[in-house]
Structures are given as structure tokens and as C-alpha cells.
Amino acid sequence: MNKVTPKYKSLYVLPNLLTTASLFSGFLGILFSIEGSFEKAALAILVSCLFDGMDGKVARLTRSSSEFGVQYDSLADLIAFGVGPAVLVYLWQTHCFGRIGIGTSFLFLACGALRLARFNVKAKTSSKKFFVGLPIPAAACTIATFVLFANYIHIVNSVWLAKLVLILTFVLALTMVSRIKYASFKDVEMARVHPFSSTVVVIFLFTLLVSEPKFLGFIFFLIYFFSGYFYTFLYLPLRKSNLREFRKELS
CA-CA distances (angstroms) from residue 99 to 90, 96, 157? Predict the structure, then answer.
């Protein structure tokens, strides 16, 4: 079977340009963190996530995906969502813990690299509906939105905030390399079957985020973080238990 190629070869460049934009935004985030502009650094990570989400979809729409693009995207993710958040949390809060702060920040980076490596190895055989382990962009965005959210909890200059950031970074790092399943949102069957309802939900969520982006952004990623634990440790065991009981009734 002949491989489907885009009508114009120049379309191969477009996804890589978006990946480069994501990488550049991540690089800016690191510079902002070094300058002490932590909210700007957080915004740069979120912008990088936006570009990262666009490059894969553009590649699929234009049929211009390539092995080179996959590897380039993974390397860009490591900088934007691994190095960037690690530097951000250390310079923002965890530096006050000395070696523990350095170790926790590095743990986030190392686990992010392991998460990307595992994803690349198993991408062709794993389920398209679920990610195994928290995706590194989601982990990075959780940290970024928490930086913006911190003003709402009124302990910006408190040691308790530093402890909270340390714990959050540690838990996010371990969750990335865990076996916990997270929805990938790549299955578009629901949108095809219920296009109007799906559009209404998207508009509703967009309106909420625009109304209070600093507050609801972190809440959104926090819900996604806990959704994996709920699905893996509560929903799946209950579903398997009900399935076994149903089979016993039939036998």
C-alpha cells in the first residue's frame, strides 16, 4: 500500500514550525524564570502547550507526519515541559529547601524524560484512548497554572507555599512514570456522534476559562490530575468486579 503524502511537500515544514514555536516559547519561559518573572514564565509554558497541541493535529490534517517530526517534537517537549517547569519551581519556591529542592526539581525533569521515552517506544502499540502516566505537558501546565493560582490562596510569601510546591512537584513527577491511565481525548467518535452537544460543552468550558483563567485554569488541570487516580483505582476495579459478577450470573 502506498503511503499517503500531502499534495504539497512544503506542508511537511508546517508542523515542525509549530514545534519550533513551542520550543522557543519554552526557552523564553526559562529566561523569564531566571529573571524572576515567574508569571511570565508560567504563561510561556502554557503558550508552548498550545503550540504543542497544534503541531500534531496539523500534521494529521495535512498528512505530513514523519518520524523526524515525532522525535523533534519529543525533544522540544523535554525542554518546554521538562526543563522549563523544573527551573521555574526551583527559582520560584523550592530553592529554599537546598539539596532537597534541587533533587525534587531534577526529579520532575528526569521523570518527564522517562515519560517521553516510554511514550515514544510504545506509541504504536498503546491504546489511543488513554495515556499511561500523566502526560508531561499536563504536568507542566499544572505547575504553570499553580503559579498563576497562588495569588488566590494568600500565602505567596509563606514557607507553606514552598512546601506545597515541593509536594506538588514530587507527586507530579512520580505520576508521570506511573501506570495510571489518563484520557487522551484523541477519540473523536463522541464529537462525531453528538456534534452539537460537543460544541456546546467546548464553548461552555472556553467561557469559564476566559472568565477566570488564573483560577479555573489550575482547577481544570487539577481535576485532570485526579481523574487518572479515580479511573485507575476506583472505576476500573469496580467495573471488573461488576463484570465478574455478571459472568457468574450467566454461568
Answer: 11, 9, 21
| Torsion (CA) 124, 126, 16, 13 in degrees, nearest 10 | 40
135: closest CA among 177, 189, 76, 75? 177
Q: What is the pTM of this model?
A: 0.86
pLDDT, one tens digit for every residue, the chain (251 residues): 445 555 555 556 788 899 999 999 999 999 999 999 999 999 999 999 999 988 777 777 777 677 888 889 999 999 999 999 999 999 999 999 999 999 999 999 999 999 999 988 887 777 778 899 999 999 999 999 999 998 787 655 678 899 999 999 999 999 999 999 998 876 555 555 556 666 776 676 777 667 777 888 899 999 999 999 999 999 888 877 766 655 665 55
The answer to whether the CB of 109 falls within 8 A of the CB of 86 is yes
Residue among 163, 175, 177 at smallest CA distance from 225: 175
Q: With 0-12 CB in 10 A as exposed, 13-18 as middle and 19+ as buried, what is 112? A: buried
Q: Are 54 and 65 spatial neighbours (Cβ–Cβ below 8 Å)?
A: no
Compute φ and ψ for 132, nearest 5 degrees.
-95, 110
